[in-house]
């Protein structure tokens, strides 16, 4: 029984303390970098709003004539649909037939296989003969609902500005109020669309294509090499390759397209794995291509490598879990290692407040958002490392399941929940429960022997991991 304490005392001073101090220093450095990036974003977006640097002031976007014989159909894009939902496919087919009967030039096409997933579908769609007569392609996921004037508000930027390759619209979520998990997603994504996309579009005319609700110039797609399925983020891959060719992008925050958030934890977890693993894997594959590119400025290279990839896609994920869920709790058992208050309180608080500007209506949910994001950082960190190392699940593609509109969901669940309930063991998540136990133990130890009052945070965070671990998060769909 005395062997374990003796071994701990032997390795504590020469091994544990130096390694933990190094880990704290690395995490504090990453926190400062993330904080500076958020401050930079806040300064730029404030300048953009104060100076009213809207896209229509920077680019010509005169409305297209309703009946222009010179433009004809070239001012309108071909719309490609990639859906695994047979019901949606049938609805699209029927809608296309309805418009065709009215004399509208519209074609419905599907592919017979799933090779290459979404990239494969888009690549196959671009090979049809009718695409040669088109200049632009509008891309929407199956659950997106553009307004009738969507093309009239986006196409003029492409028609009048030959240097622009992509016009991206903002997502608006129809089921954000469905549950607390969808509210948390809305807060994260609103910051992305309100700040990150706006800043990148304004500063260097580059941002990652969101994979949907965007219009591409077909010649830019072809010049960039078309759609590739080498990673699970084919949209980001194409955007970076097009940017390295010198093409510009425009983000229209006032053009909003309705969409749906995943409301089950399983669907959200698979989505976050793809969104975290894919960019890290793409960074691994494109780093040298970006560095050696001679067609874009050094400023754009720095923006893509440092701001776009390193800070937002790698550091932001890794620092959240490693620092707040591993390093800080570990220091409780090693009092020789101290974390300055600015590193564990002030900077995290400032970053959280800066993130809140995207969704003012949810400001009162910031505490829950922090706890939930820390839980999800476990999966994002794992996915990021898998992508960087190109390990087992690097190319895993699971279609994000959507449950339909919130009203349909409610009516379906009212009947289903009366008859059956999901068995508890079907929704247990062992990893989250393990982290919850670790944080809870650290909290009790800090309450008994600590001096930094970390137990306040640790107890609340352990509860968040426990709630997710037992499956009481998101919409629970009974299993038959």
Automatic annotation (TrEMBL):
Q: Which Pfam families match?
A: Glyco_trans_2_3
Query: Which GO terms of the molecular function aspect are on file?
Result: glucomannan 4-beta-mannosyltransferase activity
The record's top EC class is transferase
Keywords on this record? Cell wall biogenesis/degradation, Glycosyltransferase, Golgi apparatus, Membrane, Transferase, Transmembrane, Transmembrane helix
Q: Which residues form a coiled coil?
A: none
Query: Looking at the keywords, is Transferase present?
Result: yes
One GO biological process term: cell wall organization
Q: What is its main location?
A: Golgi
The GO cellular component terms are: Golgi membrane
Report which reactions are catalysed by this protein: GDP-mannose + (glucomannan)n = GDP + (glucomannan)n+1
Chain ranges passing through the membrane: 20-51, 314-334, 346-372, 428-448, 454-477
SUPFAM superfamilies from the UniProt entry: Nucleotide-diphospho-sugar transferases
What is the topology of this protein in the membrane according to its UniProt annotation? Multi-pass membrane protein
Query: Where does the protein end up?
Result: Golgi apparatus membrane
Listed EC numbers: 2.4.1.32
Family assignment from sequence similarity: Belongs to the glycosyltransferase 2 family. Plant cellulose synthase-like A subfamily.
What is the role of the protein in this entry?
Answer: Probable mannan synthase which consists of a 4-beta-mannosyltransferase activity on mannan using GDP-mannose. The beta-1,4-mannan product is the backbone for galactomannan synthesis by galactomannan galactosyltransferase. Galactomannan is a noncellulosic polysaccharides of plant cell wall.
Q: What is this protein called?
A: glucomannan 4-beta-mannosyltransferase
Organism classification? Eukaryota, Viridiplantae, Streptophyta, Embryophyta, Tracheophyta
